[in-house]
Design a protein that fits this description.
Distance between the termini: 60 Å
Mean pLDDT: 81
Radius of gyration: 31 Å
Shape: elongated
Strand content: 15-25%
Helix content: 40-55%
Number of strands: 6
Length: 368
């Protein structure tokens, strides 16, 4: 049908554009955190860049639902604004007749969300956990870069290398360890430095070559100066904390094979999440009507507000479910049913040509 093809073409184009914009915002926001963490010397750049692109995938389902909702709203609102809906109604194609292509459009997103919820999101969360655990195990010297002062927190030292060769060798290095209650301040300068692992003990060292060590308080007699050919600084790796694998990172197969309450709750939540798209599609059709007197974006703002209310109620339902205050099999289906009834009511009133909300009429009494 020509009308369906026109609808799908426009809705798909707008939805893809919204997805790209939202993804770009997520990635840019993550990139800001990358530069902050890199400046603090908290993680290595490769791990941080990996997390920047992985974290948006954690909330990709929510992003996809919002993009579909906006895509439908913008498409149908334009049809109302350009009187295309009016022409269709004159040809006998009413509001409820458009429900069929809208639901077919939502079905595509339903399938994508099923795959994302049951398979992709747990895999992404597992990968993020593995990267963070690997980052925790790695040494602070992994993030030393040429021409930059690096704060090695586990050594309480400031380290600088003029440049770092491709083989990892550092040239013209400087290290300062401030004074503590038990040790005097130490400054070490060397022509070369390289990370070194003792094969027998497995311990890691920073091996400095052809340099000088200065220890003590400047101007006092206890000041020590020592030239060295090689000087090994032991690298104390930060202790690796035991990583608790969150239930949301478990695969769907693991959830089905376990009868624990937390895992059953997570399984029921995953099953109910994709149903959101059908309710949102019906709401978009009902709320896309544009009244010239109220402005082009009046209903759009109401629709976006209602979307976030829907998501917040879902979040509340999820919290109650995880606390055990709602039976696990019930899940958050009650939220979907509630908003589905609201969407059905709006569509019924729109099909009758009535406003979405029935406001009481005020009668003006006349006195003759």
């Amino acid at each position: 049908m020509i009308i369906n093809r026109a609808f799908f073409r426009e809705a798909v184009f707008i939805t893809i554009a919204v997805v790209i914009v939202l993804l770009a915002l997520f990635i840019l926001q993550g990139a800001g955190g990358v530069f902050t963490r890199t400046g603090e010397g908290a993680h290595d750049n490769f791990s941080l860049m990996s997390l920047v692109f992985l974290y948006p995938l954690v909330n990709f389902g929510l992003l996809l639902m919002l993009a579909m909702f906006i895509g439908l709203l913008v498409t149908l609102s334009r049809w109302y604004r350009d009187s295309e809906i009016v022409v269709l109604q004159a040809c006998g194609i009413g509001t409820l007749s458009l429900l069929r292509p809208v639901m077919w459009f939502a079905l595509v997103f339903f399938v994508v969300l099923v795959v994302e919820t049951l398979f992709v999101r747990p895999l992404v969360l597992t990968t993020i956990g593995e990267i963070e655990a690997a980052t925790q195990r790695s040494s602070s010297t992994s993030w030393i870069s040429g021409g930059t002062f690096t704060d090695i927190k586990d050594q309480n030292s400031i380290f600088y290398a003029e440049r770092v060769k491709s083989n990892g060798e550092m040239v013209n290095v400087f290290m300062n360890r401030p004074a503590t209650t038990t040790e005097a301040e130490r400054v070490v300068v060397a022509k070369k430095a390289k990370r070194f692992t003792d094969v027998s003990s497995g311990e890691e060292f920073l091996q400095l070559s052809e340099g000088t060590s200065y220890r003590g308080d400047a101007g006092r007699e206890n000041y020590e100066l020592m030239d060295f050919d090689q000087y090994r600084l032991r690298i104390q790796l930060a202790p690796v904390r035991a990583r608790h694998r969150d239930v949301q990172a478990l695969s769907s197969k693991e959830l089905m094979s376990d009868n624990k309450l937390a895992r059953r709750v997570e399984w029921y939540l995953r099953l109910s999440k994709p149903a959101v798209v059908f309710v949102l599609a019906a709401l978009a059709l009902a709320l896309s009507y544009t009244e010239p007197r109220r402005g082009r974006y009046y209903n759009l703002f109401i629709a976006i507000f209602l979307f976030f209310v829907y998501m917040q109620v879902l979040l509340i339902g999820e919290t109650l479910l995880r606390r055990g205050e709602i039976p696990a099999p019930l899940g958050v289906w009650w939220v979907h049913v509630l908003f589905a009834m609201l969407a059905a009511y709006f569509l019924w009133r729109r099909a009758l040509g009535k406003p979405l909300v029935a406001l009481p009429t005020l009668r003006v009494l006349r006195h003759d």
